[in-house]
Structures are given as structure tokens and as C-alpha cells.
């Protein structure tokens, strides 16, 4: 979100040490003015640049519900411009959004040109609208087996060249309302491994 001059200063400072092999920028698709993309393209000639974009869902109605703040076409256009600039793109996808199909979102991200994906579980956290809706019974949490199955379904539609960078995520335990099983990382990974190994 910083001005171009500040970003240039920060990014070039970050890649200066010899032991730095690349730079990873996480941002929103609606925060990529052309001058920033040109800057990343310039840096990519020196050291590899990866850009992470939060898509979460390809369904615009659900995106509006979670206050994502931009239409899905903005993501599609951002990926197109980034790929044209020769940059690698990783896409964040949330599994467990109410009435959403993460497999559809995964296919959409791949079709747009994503080189990698990071899958996250929907966390219901204190002091949020989701928490109120959960407490009022308007939304429900995924069971651990449901998450593992949906994750497997998402992975199954990925081409071999698309890299999975993350298969789950953590909500701050002090703020986590649901699903509480997500705080037990060993259990989560065991459930995912079990689901992935089943035919």
C-alpha cells in the first residue's frame, strides 16, 4: 500500500543480500497499479518474484458476503497482467465458506493461470459478524473429515505443475470460536493424510 518510491526502496533492500534467493509479495488483486507491476517485473530480472493474491472464492455473492472488497474479474485481470509480466502467482482459497464450492474456485484459479495455491480453513473468530451468525445458528462449522475431503477434492483438480503451498491455516487460539479441532495441528494433518491416501 506504500507509494512506488517506498516500495522500490523496500524491495531492492530486501533482495540486496546474497543469501536472499527471491522475494514473495502478498497483496490484493485490487492493489496492483501498473507501476508496481513494472517494479516487480524489474526485480524479477534480478531475483525471482512471486505474488500472492487472496481470491478466497470465485463466487461474487459470497465474496460480497465476506466483504472481500472487489469483484472476481479484478482477480482474473490481475493474474493476467502478472503472468504477462513473467511473474509467478499463488492464490489463497478458503475452504468452508457458507454455501461455497471451493472446487469451483480452485478450477477458476487454475484456469486464470495460478502457479500455486494456498488452502485455508474458514475460522470463526471472536468479535466478528461470522461469530454472531454462528452463535445464532445461521452458519455451521466444517467437521474435520469434511475439511479433509474438500481439500482432497480441490487438490484432485489441480494440474501436476500447480504447487500446493499450504493445506491448512491457523486462527489465533485466543480468538478462535470454531472449529476448535483446527487448533490441534497434529490431528488436522493426520486427518488430511488419511483422506489423501484413500482411493
Across the major sheet, the strand order is 1-2-3-4-6
**Biggest pleated sheet:** 5 strands, parallel
In DSSP terms (H or I, runs of 4 or more residues), the helix count works out at: 8
- Number of E-type strands: 7
Portion in helices: 40-55%
Low-pLDDT stretches: none
Mean residue pLDDT: 95
Return the string of H and E elements. Answer: HEHEHHEHEEHHEEH
Strand content: 15-25%
The first-to-last residue Cα distance is: 45 Å
Rg measurement, Å? 18 Å
Structural class: alpha/beta
Identify the overall geometry: globular
Descriptive tags:
199 residues; alpha/beta; two-stranded antiparallel sheet; 8 helices; 43% helix
What does the model show?
The chain is of the alpha/beta class. The protein contains eight helices and seven strands, in the order H-E-H-E-H-H-E-H-E-E-H-H-E-E-H. The strands form two sheets. The protein has a five-stranded parallel β-sheet. Strands 5-7 form a two-stranded antiparallel sheet. The longest helix is centred in the middle third of the chain and has 13 residues, at 72-84. It starts with a helix and ends with a helix.
